[in-house]
Design goal:
231 residues
Length: 231
């Protein structure tokens, strides 16, 4: 009878969810450094160095996160800095320190602070501090508490709040376009360093400051490819 009770108790314990203290990897790892195809699910790590494809779900890193490779998943919290070389696509991304992405960044329902993207930025329902994008930007239903710096041929803000926008000169984009859609609000100035910019404004979008170095057109953004999000 006692043996039966013990076996039943052990079986019931084995059904409980276990939060691991490391990630699984098809490759090898040394401490919190992983090399290969990495999957982190329901883990909390003091830091993370990943070299390879990284998939995350409900993962927290209490320190520096350094990745060379693609990052995908949801519910990633980093109490520290994030540095990546590769495409990043994460839903519910929180980074308390700076974020530097060398590649495309796709984020929804995120909270980021000082952010630099050397590639395209696609953001939805995300809060930033200062943002610098060296590539095209599509920012929807988001808030930038600081300034947005763009070095791109074409960018669109859709239902987004920002202080100032600076569009820097780019040898790859002699003509530069910014579109404000769906009640986007710029509380400061929009400045095109080249003096040859074009700003499209549609709907209830507004600018409290000045537009410097650009021709202002009241109308929809001319781009109609999949990157466009106007409505």
């Amino acid at each position: 009878m006692k043996t039966k009770i013990l076996i039943t108790a052990l079986l019931s314990i084995s059904t409980f969810s276990v939060f691991a203290d490391n990630c699984s990897v098809e490759g090898h790892n040394s401490g919190n450094s992983y090399f290969g195809q990495i999957t982190c699910t329901k883990v909390t790590l003091p830091s993370l160095l990943a070299r390879g494809e990284l998939t995350v779900l409900k993962t927290t890193v209490n320190g520096e996160t350094d990745v060379i490779g693609e990052v995908t998943g949801a519910y990633l919290t980093i109490n520290g800095t994030l540095s990546t070389h590769g495409e990043v696509n994460v839903n519910h991304l929180t980074v308390t320190g700076s974020t530097d992405v060398h590649g495309q960044l796709g984020v929804s329902s995120g909270t980021l602070h000082a952010t630099t993207v050397y590639g395209a930025l696609n953001a939805t329902n995300t809060t930033f501090d200062d943002v610098k994008v060296f590539g095209r930007a599509s920012i929807q239903d988001s808030k930038i508490n600081g300034n947005l710096t763009l070095s791109s041929k074409w960018s669109v803000l859709n239902g987004t709040f920002v202080n100032n926008i600076l569009v820097t000169k780019s040898i790859f984009a002699p003509t530069q376009i910014v579109c404000l859609e769906k009640a986007s609000h710029v509380t400061g100035n929009i400045t095109f360093d080249s003096g040859k910019g074009t700003l499209y404004i549609i709907g209830a979008s507004k600018i409290d400051g000045k537009v410097i170095g650009a021709n202002v057109i009241k109308g929809a953004c001319p781009r109609k490819d999949p990157f466009t999000i106007q409505n």
